[in-house]
Structures are given as structure tokens and as C-alpha cells.
Specification:
This protein has helices at residues 2-39, 43-62. It has 81 residues and is mainly alpha-helical. It has one domain (2-62). The longest helix has 38 residues, at 2-39. It is elongated and about 55 Å long.
Length: 81
Amino acid sequence: MPLHFGKTYYPKIIGFAMPFFTILSSLGSSLTGWIHDATHSYILAWKYAILVLTIGLVILILASPPLYPSIRGNGAITVAG
């Protein structure tokens, strides 16, 4: 990820996103327990987990690589300075 966002912004992005990751992770295990209590099976929870992971994988595959400002349309790389 530092290659995508740079060394300056990467820690800021992770610092901003980490609380959301933590909350969503804790909700995932609680939701799984609730599904098990309601259905007496983990099958539905596994189906939801596979669905969420598949959506994430598709988004990851479709994501385009970053375009660096130093790379011009003709492919020439310039040095800032």
C-alpha cells in the first residue's frame, strides 16, 4: 500500500481506517454468534463470509494501479526538482 499512497499518506490512511476495521471485525464475530444462536448452524454465517470475501476479491481485481504524477502520457519519467 505505501506504493499506492506514498510514505506520507499511508500511516494517515491506516490510522483513519483502523477504528473501522476494529469495529467491523468485532461485529463480524458477534453476528456469526447471533446467526448460530438463531439457526443452530454456521452454514448461513459461512455463506455471508464467502459473499463478503468474494465481493472484496472482485473489487481488488478490478482496482486499477495508481498513476504517478511523475509519469507523463508519453511514458517518460521526469524527476521533480
